[in-house]
UniProtKB/TrEMBL annotation:
Residues passing through the membrane, by range: 28-51, 57-74, 268-288
Keyword DNA damage: no
Coiled coil feature spans: 142-169
Name of protein: DUF4407 domain-containing protein
One Pfam entry name: DUF4407
Stretch forming the signal peptide: none
Species this protein is from: Polaribacter aquimarinus
Keywords: Coiled coil, Membrane, Transmembrane, Transmembrane helix
InterPro entries, alphabetized: DUF4407
Entry keyword Transit peptide: no
Protein backbone atom coordinates (compact mmCIF):
# COMPACT_ATOMS: atom_id res chain seq x y z
CA UNK A 1 0.00 0.00 0.00
CA UNK A 2 2.75 2.44 1.01
CA UNK A 3 4.80 1.40 -2.02
CA UNK A 4 1.94 2.18 -4.37
CA UNK A 5 1.41 5.56 -2.68
CA UNK A 6 5.05 6.58 -3.12
CA UNK A 7 4.98 5.37 -6.74
CA UNK A 8 2.00 7.68 -7.26
CA UNK A 9 3.99 10.51 -5.66
CA UNK A 10 6.85 9.93 -8.10
CA UNK A 11 4.56 10.54 -11.09
CA UNK A 12 5.39 7.30 -12.94
CA UNK A 13 3.08 5.40 -15.27
CA UNK A 14 1.67 2.66 -13.06
CA UNK A 15 0.89 0.35 -15.95
CA UNK A 16 4.55 0.41 -17.00
CA UNK A 17 6.20 0.38 -13.56
CA UNK A 18 4.15 -2.63 -12.40
CA UNK A 19 5.82 -4.74 -15.12
CA UNK A 20 9.33 -3.60 -14.11
CA UNK A 21 11.74 -5.26 -11.68
CA UNK A 22 11.69 -4.60 -7.92
CA UNK A 23 14.94 -2.64 -8.14
CA UNK A 24 13.47 -0.28 -10.72
CA UNK A 25 10.32 0.13 -8.63
CA UNK A 26 12.34 0.84 -5.47
CA UNK A 27 14.20 3.62 -7.27
CA UNK A 28 10.95 5.42 -7.99
CA UNK A 29 9.58 4.64 -4.53
CA UNK A 30 12.56 6.59 -3.12
CA UNK A 31 11.90 9.48 -5.48
CA UNK A 32 8.21 9.51 -4.54
CA UNK A 33 9.03 9.42 -0.81
CA UNK A 34 11.32 12.43 -1.23
CA UNK A 35 8.57 14.33 -3.03
CA UNK A 36 6.04 13.44 -0.30
CA UNK A 37 8.21 14.41 2.68
CA UNK A 38 9.24 17.64 0.98
CA UNK A 39 5.53 18.48 0.73
CA UNK A 40 5.11 17.64 4.44
CA UNK A 41 7.95 20.02 5.34
CA UNK A 42 6.38 22.65 3.09
CA UNK A 43 3.06 22.24 4.93
CA UNK A 44 4.76 22.76 8.31
CA UNK A 45 6.76 25.73 7.05
CA UNK A 46 3.76 27.31 5.35
CA UNK A 47 1.54 26.86 8.41
CA UNK A 48 4.08 28.57 10.66
CA UNK A 49 4.64 31.42 8.20
CA UNK A 50 0.89 32.00 7.85
CA UNK A 51 0.44 31.77 11.63
CA UNK A 52 2.80 34.71 12.05
CA UNK A 53 0.63 36.63 9.56
CA UNK A 54 -2.93 35.70 10.62
CA UNK A 55 -2.24 34.74 14.25
CA UNK A 56 -4.97 32.12 13.84
CA UNK A 57 -4.08 28.43 14.20
CA UNK A 58 -7.00 27.00 12.20
CA UNK A 59 -6.53 29.35 9.25
CA UNK A 60 -2.75 28.78 9.31
CA UNK A 61 -3.17 24.97 9.21
CA UNK A 62 -5.79 25.14 6.47
CA UNK A 63 -3.77 27.37 4.14
CA UNK A 64 -0.58 25.50 5.12
CA UNK A 65 -2.11 22.25 3.84
CA UNK A 66 -3.07 23.98 0.58
CA UNK A 67 0.49 25.28 0.27
CA UNK A 68 1.89 21.79 0.91
CA UNK A 69 -0.37 20.31 -1.78
CA UNK A 70 0.79 22.99 -4.22
CA UNK A 71 4.46 22.16 -3.54
CA UNK A 72 3.67 18.43 -3.83
CA UNK A 73 2.04 18.96 -7.21
CA UNK A 74 4.96 21.07 -8.46
CA UNK A 75 7.59 18.56 -7.31
CA UNK A 76 5.65 15.67 -8.82
CA UNK A 77 5.35 17.56 -12.10
CA UNK A 78 9.09 18.39 -12.11
CA UNK A 79 10.13 14.78 -11.51
CA UNK A 80 7.64 13.22 -13.92
CA UNK A 81 8.56 15.51 -16.84
CA UNK A 82 12.29 14.71 -16.82
CA UNK A 83 12.90 12.13 -19.57
CA UNK A 84 16.04 10.02 -19.91
CA UNK A 85 17.92 10.27 -23.18
CA UNK A 86 21.21 9.14 -24.68
CA UNK A 87 22.81 12.59 -24.22
CA UNK A 88 23.61 13.80 -20.68
CA UNK A 89 23.90 17.40 -21.87
CA UNK A 90 20.43 17.18 -23.33
CA UNK A 91 19.13 15.86 -20.01
CA UNK A 92 20.88 18.66 -18.07
CA UNK A 93 19.48 21.28 -20.46
CA UNK A 94 16.04 19.75 -20.08
CA UNK A 95 16.32 19.75 -16.27
CA UNK A 96 17.80 23.26 -15.87
CA UNK A 97 14.44 25.13 -15.66
CA UNK A 98 13.20 22.50 -13.21
CA UNK A 99 16.35 22.88 -11.09
CA UNK A 100 15.79 26.65 -11.00
CA UNK A 101 12.20 26.09 -9.89
CA UNK A 102 13.42 23.64 -7.24
CA UNK A 103 15.83 26.28 -5.90
CA UNK A 104 12.96 28.77 -5.58
CA UNK A 105 10.81 26.18 -3.80
CA UNK A 106 13.70 25.35 -1.43
CA UNK A 107 14.05 29.02 -0.49
CA UNK A 108 10.31 29.36 0.12
CA UNK A 109 10.21 26.22 2.26
CA UNK A 110 13.37 26.85 4.29
CA UNK A 111 12.73 30.48 5.25
CA UNK A 112 9.70 29.90 7.57
CA UNK A 113 11.49 26.98 9.27
CA UNK A 114 14.53 29.19 9.82
CA UNK A 115 12.21 31.69 11.49
CA UNK A 116 11.00 28.98 13.86
CA UNK A 117 14.44 27.49 14.56
CA UNK A 118 15.95 30.89 15.39
CA UNK A 119 12.81 32.21 17.09
CA UNK A 120 14.54 33.11 20.39
CA UNK A 121 17.36 34.97 18.67
CA UNK A 122 14.88 36.77 16.43
CA UNK A 123 12.80 37.77 19.46
CA UNK A 124 15.93 39.27 21.05
CA UNK A 125 16.64 41.30 17.91
CA UNK A 126 13.00 42.43 17.76
CA UNK A 127 13.08 43.40 21.47
CA UNK A 128 16.13 45.59 20.86
CA UNK A 129 14.46 47.18 17.86
CA UNK A 130 11.22 47.75 19.77
CA UNK A 131 13.08 49.44 22.63
CA UNK A 132 14.89 51.71 20.18
CA UNK A 133 11.62 52.42 18.37
CA UNK A 134 9.98 53.30 21.72
CA UNK A 135 12.76 55.78 22.52
CA UNK A 136 12.62 57.25 19.03
CA UNK A 137 8.85 57.49 19.23
CA UNK A 138 8.98 59.33 22.57
CA UNK A 139 11.60 61.70 21.17
CA UNK A 140 9.49 62.44 18.09
CA UNK A 141 6.36 63.04 20.17
CA UNK A 142 8.30 65.19 22.64
CA UNK A 143 9.52 67.33 19.73
CA UNK A 144 5.89 68.14 18.99
CA UNK A 145 5.03 69.27 22.55
CA UNK A 146 8.33 70.41 24.13
CA UNK A 147 8.64 73.81 22.33
CA UNK A 148 5.13 74.89 23.41
CA UNK A 149 5.65 73.65 26.96
CA UNK A 150 9.00 75.48 27.13
CA UNK A 151 7.38 78.72 25.93
CA UNK A 152 4.66 78.50 28.56
CA UNK A 153 7.24 77.73 31.28
CA UNK A 154 9.22 80.81 30.19
CA UNK A 155 6.06 82.90 30.52
CA UNK A 156 5.47 81.44 34.02
CA UNK A 157 9.04 82.26 35.02
CA UNK A 158 8.59 85.84 33.76
CA UNK A 159 5.45 86.24 35.85
CA UNK A 160 7.24 84.88 38.92
CA UNK A 161 10.19 87.17 38.19
CA UNK A 162 7.85 90.15 38.11
CA UNK A 163 6.61 89.25 41.60
CA UNK A 164 10.18 88.75 42.85
CA UNK A 165 11.30 92.11 41.42
CA UNK A 166 8.32 93.89 42.99
CA UNK A 167 8.99 92.21 46.33
CA UNK A 168 12.61 93.44 46.21
CA UNK A 169 11.47 97.01 45.55
CA UNK A 170 8.83 96.83 48.30
CA UNK A 171 11.32 95.40 50.83
CA UNK A 172 13.77 98.17 49.95
CA UNK A 173 11.06 100.80 50.62
CA UNK A 174 10.25 99.08 53.90
CA UNK A 175 13.88 99.21 54.95
CA UNK A 176 14.03 102.90 53.92
CA UNK A 177 11.12 104.08 56.08
CA UNK A 178 12.17 101.93 59.07
CA UNK A 179 15.70 103.32 58.87
CA UNK A 180 14.19 106.87 58.73
CA UNK A 181 12.14 106.14 61.84
CA UNK A 182 15.17 104.81 63.69
CA UNK A 183 17.38 107.70 62.53
CA UNK A 184 19.90 105.48 60.78
CA UNK A 185 19.42 106.93 57.27
CA UNK A 186 17.77 109.86 55.53
CA UNK A 187 17.37 112.84 57.88
CA UNK A 188 18.88 110.76 60.71
CA UNK A 189 16.28 112.21 63.10
CA UNK A 190 14.68 109.71 65.48
CA UNK A 191 10.90 109.50 65.24
CA UNK A 192 8.08 109.49 62.74
CA UNK A 193 8.26 112.82 61.04
CA UNK A 194 6.99 114.05 57.66
CA UNK A 195 9.79 112.30 55.75
CA UNK A 196 8.94 109.04 57.50
CA UNK A 197 5.27 109.41 56.56
CA UNK A 198 6.18 110.10 52.92
CA UNK A 199 8.39 107.05 52.73
CA UNK A 200 5.81 104.96 54.58
CA UNK A 201 3.15 105.97 52.01
CA UNK A 202 5.47 104.95 49.15
CA UNK A 203 6.01 101.56 50.79
CA UNK A 204 2.31 101.03 51.42
CA UNK A 205 1.49 101.90 47.81
CA UNK A 206 4.18 99.51 46.59
CA UNK A 207 2.92 96.80 48.97
CA UNK A 208 -0.63 97.19 47.60
CA UNK A 209 0.71 96.93 44.05
CA UNK A 210 2.68 93.85 45.10
CA UNK A 211 -0.41 92.18 46.55
CA UNK A 212 -2.42 92.95 43.43
CA UNK A 213 0.44 91.74 41.20
CA UNK A 214 0.64 88.50 43.20
CA UNK A 215 -3.11 88.00 42.82
CA UNK A 216 -3.10 88.65 39.07
CA UNK A 217 0.08 86.73 38.29
CA UNK A 218 -0.92 83.79 40.48
CA UNK A 219 -4.12 83.41 38.45
CA UNK A 220 -2.14 83.62 35.20
CA UNK A 221 0.46 81.14 36.48
CA UNK A 222 -2.25 78.65 37.49
CA UNK A 223 -3.86 78.91 34.03
CA UNK A 224 -0.53 78.40 32.32
CA UNK A 225 0.41 75.50 34.61
CA UNK A 226 -2.93 73.92 33.74
CA UNK A 227 -2.12 74.35 30.02
CA UNK A 228 1.27 72.69 30.61
CA UNK A 229 -0.44 69.83 32.43
CA UNK A 230 -2.86 69.34 29.51
CA UNK A 231 0.01 69.30 27.03
CA UNK A 232 1.86 66.73 29.12
CA UNK A 233 -1.29 64.60 29.30
CA UNK A 234 -1.68 64.78 25.51
CA UNK A 235 1.95 63.81 25.12
CA UNK A 236 1.47 60.75 27.34
CA UNK A 237 -1.76 59.90 25.47
CA UNK A 238 0.07 60.02 22.11
CA UNK A 239 2.77 57.73 23.50
CA UNK A 240 0.11 55.33 24.82
CA UNK A 241 -1.71 55.23 21.46
CA UNK A 242 1.43 54.52 19.43
CA UNK A 243 2.90 51.96 21.83
CA UNK A 244 0.61 49.05 20.70
CA UNK A 245 1.83 49.57 17.12
CA UNK A 246 5.41 49.17 18.30
CA UNK A 247 4.47 46.21 20.52
CA UNK A 248 2.91 44.43 17.52
CA UNK A 249 6.00 44.94 15.38
CA UNK A 250 6.69 41.22 15.05
CA UNK A 251 5.04 40.26 11.77
CA UNK A 252 6.47 38.09 9.00
CA UNK A 253 8.48 40.85 7.29
CA UNK A 254 9.86 42.11 10.61
CA UNK A 255 11.00 38.60 11.52
CA UNK A 256 12.61 38.05 8.11
CA UNK A 257 14.51 41.35 8.48
CA UNK A 258 15.54 40.34 12.01
CA UNK A 259 16.74 36.97 10.69
CA UNK A 260 18.89 38.84 8.17
CA UNK A 261 20.69 40.57 11.04
CA UNK A 262 21.76 37.24 12.54
CA UNK A 263 24.92 35.36 11.41
CA UNK A 264 24.26 34.09 7.89
CA UNK A 265 26.14 30.75 8.05
CA UNK A 266 23.57 28.66 10.06
CA UNK A 267 20.74 29.98 7.92
CA UNK A 268 22.72 29.22 4.76
CA UNK A 269 23.33 25.59 5.78
CA UNK A 270 19.61 25.10 6.49
CA UNK A 271 18.88 26.44 3.02
CA UNK A 272 21.43 24.04 1.53
CA UNK A 273 19.75 21.16 3.36
CA UNK A 274 16.36 21.94 1.85
CA UNK A 275 17.92 22.62 -1.51
CA UNK A 276 19.50 19.13 -1.40
CA UNK A 277 16.15 17.59 -0.42
CA UNK A 278 14.25 19.48 -3.10
CA UNK A 279 16.70 18.77 -5.93
CA UNK A 280 17.57 15.19 -4.93
CA UNK A 281 14.79 13.57 -7.04
CA UNK A 282 15.95 15.58 -10.09
CA UNK A 283 19.63 14.72 -9.64
CA UNK A 284 18.71 11.09 -8.89
CA UNK A 285 17.08 10.84 -12.30
CA UNK A 286 19.95 12.69 -13.98
CA UNK A 287 22.69 10.55 -12.38
CA UNK A 288 20.90 7.21 -12.75
CA UNK A 289 21.48 5.28 -15.94
CA UNK A 290 18.66 4.59 -18.33
CA UNK A 291 16.62 1.85 -16.69
CA UNK A 292 13.94 -0.63 -17.58
CA UNK A 293 11.13 1.83 -16.94
CA UNK A 294 12.75 4.46 -19.21
CA UNK A 295 13.11 1.98 -22.07
CA UNK A 296 9.49 0.80 -21.76
CA UNK A 297 8.23 4.38 -21.51
CA UNK A 298 10.26 5.36 -24.57
CA UNK A 299 8.91 2.33 -26.43
CA UNK A 300 5.34 3.28 -25.59
CA UNK A 301 5.82 6.93 -26.55
CA UNK A 302 7.58 5.96 -29.78
CA UNK A 303 4.73 3.60 -30.67
CA UNK A 304 2.20 6.37 -30.13
CA UNK A 305 4.25 8.83 -32.18
CA UNK A 306 4.57 6.30 -35.02
CA UNK A 307 0.84 5.54 -34.97
CA UNK A 308 -0.06 9.25 -35.01
CA UNK A 309 2.35 9.85 -37.88
CA UNK A 310 0.80 6.99 -39.85
CA UNK A 311 -2.70 8.33 -39.24
CA UNK A 312 -1.68 11.80 -40.44
CA UNK A 313 -0.07 10.40 -43.59
CA UNK A 314 -3.12 8.25 -44.33
CA UNK A 315 -5.44 11.26 -43.97
CA UNK A 316 -3.23 13.29 -46.32
CA UNK A 317 -3.27 10.50 -48.91
CA UNK A 318 -7.04 10.13 -48.61
CA UNK A 319 -7.48 13.89 -49.08
CA UNK A 320 -5.27 13.93 -52.17
CA UNK A 321 -7.10 10.92 -53.65
CA UNK A 322 -10.50 12.50 -52.95
CA UNK A 323 -9.43 15.72 -54.68
CA UNK A 324 -8.25 13.83 -57.76
CA UNK A 325 -11.46 11.73 -57.92
CA UNK A 326 -13.71 14.77 -57.44
CA UNK A 327 -11.94 16.68 -60.18
CA UNK A 328 -12.32 13.76 -62.59
CA UNK A 329 -16.02 13.35 -61.76
CA UNK A 330 -16.81 17.04 -62.33
CA UNK A 331 -14.75 17.10 -65.51
CA UNK A 332 -16.79 14.19 -66.90
CA UNK A 333 -20.10 15.84 -65.92
CA UNK A 334 -19.13 19.13 -67.58
CA UNK A 335 -18.96 17.39 -70.96
CA UNK A 336 -22.56 16.00 -70.83
CA UNK A 337 -24.96 17.64 -73.37
CA UNK A 338 -28.11 16.97 -71.30
CA UNK A 339 -26.76 18.97 -68.31
CA UNK A 340 -25.76 21.84 -70.66
CA UNK A 341 -29.26 22.01 -72.23
CA UNK A 342 -30.95 21.97 -68.80
CA UNK A 343 -28.81 24.78 -67.38
CA UNK A 344 -29.32 26.82 -70.59
CA UNK A 345 -33.13 26.61 -70.21
CA UNK A 346 -32.94 27.69 -66.54
CA UNK A 347 -30.71 30.64 -67.42
CA UNK A 348 -33.12 31.73 -70.20
CA UNK A 349 -36.11 31.65 -67.80
CA UNK A 350 -34.18 33.60 -65.17
CA UNK A 351 -33.28 36.35 -67.62
CA UNK A 352 -36.96 36.62 -68.71
CA UNK A 353 -38.02 37.09 -65.10
CA UNK A 354 -35.37 39.78 -64.57
CA UNK A 355 -36.53 41.65 -67.68
CA UNK A 356 -40.21 41.50 -66.61
CA UNK A 357 -39.32 42.76 -63.12
CA UNK A 358 -37.30 45.68 -64.52
CA UNK A 359 -40.17 46.64 -66.83
CA UNK A 360 -42.68 46.69 -63.94
CA UNK A 361 -40.47 48.94 -61.82
CA UNK A 362 -40.00 51.40 -64.69
CA UNK A 363 -43.74 51.46 -65.27
CA UNK A 364 -44.43 52.35 -61.60
CA UNK A 365 -41.93 55.20 -61.70
CA UNK A 366 -43.72 56.79 -64.68
Amino acid sequence: MLKKFFLTCSGVDKNIIENCSDGEQNKYVGIGATVFFTAVMATIAGSYALFTVFDNLSAAIFFGIIWGLLIFNLDRFIVSTIKKSDSKWKEILQASPRILLAVIIAIVISKPLELKLFEKEINQVLLTEKNQMTLDNKTQIAEQFTPEIANINDEINKLKQEITTKETVTNALYETYIAEAEGRKGTKLLGKGPVYKEKREKHDASLAELNQLKKDNTAKIQAKELAVSDLQKNQKLSETKTQPIIANFDGLMARINALGKLPWLPSFFIFLLFLAIETSPIFAKLIASKGEYDFKLEDQETAVKTWVKQQVQQREKMLQTDIVVSKKVYDDISEEEELYTYKQKIARDLMKLQADSFYKKQQKML
